[in-house]
Amino acid sequence: MSVPWTYHGRVAAQLTKGQIDHLTVGDLTVSVQHSEPIDVSALLLNSAGRVRGERDLIFFNQNSGPGIRLADGQIPGVSIELRALPRDVEHVRVIVNLADQQAHFGDFEAPVLRVAGPGGKPLYEYVVDGLGRAGVVVALDLDRVGGAWQLRMIGEGYDAGFDALVTGHGVRVSGPGEQDPGYRGPAELAPGQEVSLHNVRSGDLTLVKMALGWDPVRGRGLRKVEVDLDASALMFAGDRVVDGANFHQLASLSGAARHSGDNVDGSGAGDDEIITVNLGQLPRHVTAVVFVVTSYKGHTFERVREAFWRMDDGVAGMQLARGNLRAGGAHTGMIVAKVYRDGSTWRMASIGAPIQATHPVEAIPQILPYL
User: Fold this and answer.
1) Which one Pfam family would you cite for this protein (predicted)?
2) pTM for this model (two decimals)
3) Contact (Cβ atoms closer than 8 angstroms) between residue 90 and residue 143
């Protein structure tokens, strides 16, 4: 049995699936605690249960809308100002999904949903259990009733996935490369899959960001195992390395690639290392940029199951692709992706090939078959 959530002597009401309560506050923060990386999003819906337009989906690529925004801080969630919601918004639906699209909530302890009022005052707590193989869950609804609002705990898993869920509420989902400005969710590319970077949003993609994140690993007891992962970008002219950016060289010689700096243990929330590559500044002789992750101290990826990589459109702030490092197994490195010239445009390919390398230089001979 979980310990009730308390804050400054206040205790949250423990709710269960299907319970309804009338709200007496105007500002809310809904947060979700879980052992695995998750995303929290929300839909603003009219009386028919449909969005009114693009702005009514609040998620990682669009972090705010009228009366609502993704919450600040390390715990994923949304902050809602009920009085600021447009009059034709009748429902607010809060959704939680696992960042690893291949994972299932039933494989882990149940997520815990918490609703706080002004000043962080605990209002409600809900253990969202019984989700089985679902990787997405409709957590709760806020419903307008006359001039007031009520909260309803839903807790329904959705096996079809996040894209199918938002599509069912009227959000247009577009695929990689489409010019329509509709929602485009993360493309968890399988190894070997590619996506054109031409006209991803509007015009050619000019700036890509590769992000790496992982969490500190605990050994026996409370001892922290300092697993040091490193993100690197290696620039090739044909099969020859000509430049790059990594923890040792934070900016490439051409200035086109820049590394955010070395994180030695995965501490801190969100992205731990980021490499930004300005494709327009790459010298003409550069034919490909290959992104690799290596484990500096030789810890295998079996020890870093929380680790992920992500590729973003650096201008629009839109996620292009995402992958996890769990498939690395008993290896110390992975070739995660490459961006390469295809005539006058660029393409991105997911590779996901485990390798043995504790330093990017050691990865070079193992990269050559993938160029």
Assistant:
1) TerD
2) 0.56
3) yes
